[in-house]
Amino acid sequence: MFDLPADLVDLDLIYLSWGAICWVRDLSVWATMVADRLRPGGSILIADHHPIWEVLTVTGPNGLTVSTDYFGRNTPRSTIDNVKLPTGARDTPEPPAFTVFVWPPSDIITALLAAGLRLTHFTEFPIADMYGGLSVAASHLPATYLIRAPRDVSRGTEPRVGK
Which residues, in sequence order, are bridge partners of residue 66? Predict the structure, then answer.
């Protein structure tokens, strides 16, 4: 994600989907890279699992436990539920080792704003099926979110990556 060709710039859209932001070690570096690669008026769109879903584990009907620190920020997660493992690693006796992070949406939005982007959309969504076994209460919890942040047209005169 951070080792992109220097001439990959002037993008209309950068899209991150389910399970992408958890691989980012440093939100400030990442957000600056995103802002520098967007053309003026271009946007980043992030659709991802909500960190609340990442930190809660369903233990049975109407039962939840907190499995990791929501505010851990740049502390890698030490354990991950089977359902939250990357595709291909689920239901395996010994999934591969990897490092992921839980980023509250406020941290992501703050990093994007600090990089000079403008927040135009933030929405959280309940998806009851993502909290399997929780029953009706699952619809009271956020499961995913959507962020849209465009690069202002006025930022068009600044130096660009690779130039």
Answer: 56
